[in-house]
Amino acid sequence: MNYSKSIKKTKSSKIIFLGILFVLLIISQTGCGKKEPETNTFPIYKEDFSLDTICRITVYAMDESISGGSEVDVKARVEEKLKGAFALCKEYEALLSKTIETSDVARINSGKGMPIECDEGTIELIQDGMQFGEISQGSFNIGLGSVTELWDFHAMEPMVPQEEDLKEALKHVYDSSDSNNGNIKIEGNAVSLVDQESKLDLGGIAKGYIADRIGEYLVREGVTGAVIDLGGNIVVLGHKPSEEENGEPQEITVGIKRPYTTTEIVGSIPLHDATVVTSGIYERYFEEGGVKYHHVLDPKTGYPADSGLESVTVIGELGQSEYCDALATIILIKGESWLREQIDQNRTETFGYNYMTFSDFTYILIDKEENIITLGNPQRVFTPIQ
Hints:
Layout: E1 3-7, E2 26-29, E3 44-50, E4 53-62, H1 64-67, H2 71-96, H3 104-109, E5 116-117, H4 120-135, H5 145-148, H6 163-170, E6 184-187, E7 190-193, H7 206-220, E8 223-230, E9 233-238, E10 252-257, E11 265-271, E12 274-280, E13 285-288, E14 291-294, E15 309-317, H8 321-334, H9 336-344, E16 348-351, E17 354-357, E18 362-367, E19 372-376, E20 383-384
Antiparallel strand pairs: 1-19, 2-10, 3-4, 4-8, 5-7, 6-7, 8-9, 9-12, 10-11, 11-20, 12-15, 13-14, 15-18, 16-17, 18-19
């Protein structure tokens, strides 16, 4: 069953945060509330700069084998788990970042067509990225690196690339609508690019993949309640303890950011064992000649996509952050009508032993008139701010 609802623009509402203010795609409304009755230990958090953003992991609860003992001992054990989670994040960044020269992706890009031995995680992600290219009829393209490197949104004075440079770069962007096009070759644990000037860029999918791996790690380590925030890629693991002694565990409420603001949200949604990813044209952009240029590029033109949407939030189950990451980008490029078609068709895709059905996800779209459109799974209830 699917549902659709459109909410007209409302007056701005602000959430004021204590402590450090994060500028995120999604603002996590995970107030601490009262502490657990037994100790004042939780929540425990750690933050670091990774994946070109501020990342924060907050632990609300652990299983009894870890949460027992003195407050000092429990905190030390949890902090060790958090240290391991960030080490894992750095490990995957070192494999998947196109800007780290020793990464698998950078070595493939500079390999001049030679087979490059890669980690199995890199190969898995490349294969998934190629499949999302087919799903999107070519709008999602992990081979867009020759174009994305022309758009430097981190420069002090960003500029629109020269048209002739874009045209040349586009010659080396393969047709991602067909994963059998032959440009990306995977043989065993080696990857090569037939077009030596072609370049991979896994930025539209890597952060979600890493979030999934961190979630798996924390579950293995006994975490029963946590929020993983990789700069807007949110994973909600389990619950947080009740504010009342002997009360039921609580879902964790996540606020959805209003585009082009820092602290305003358009509404919120309570979740457990879920993942939330937002892609927006306001994340990285600059203006030139009165025109805004954002970082979500259309592989067919090399210029920023224009689907009429300002942001797309996709909510799925725990372990689906990679899928949510890719879908958010695809929908931002292809638009609302394309998404409705996939939901109406109850489209299902298979990734190895995993299945992704469009109607199982929840979607929150914000268009350029600031209308809010909700689609997909109605069991997750988004509450807009009126």
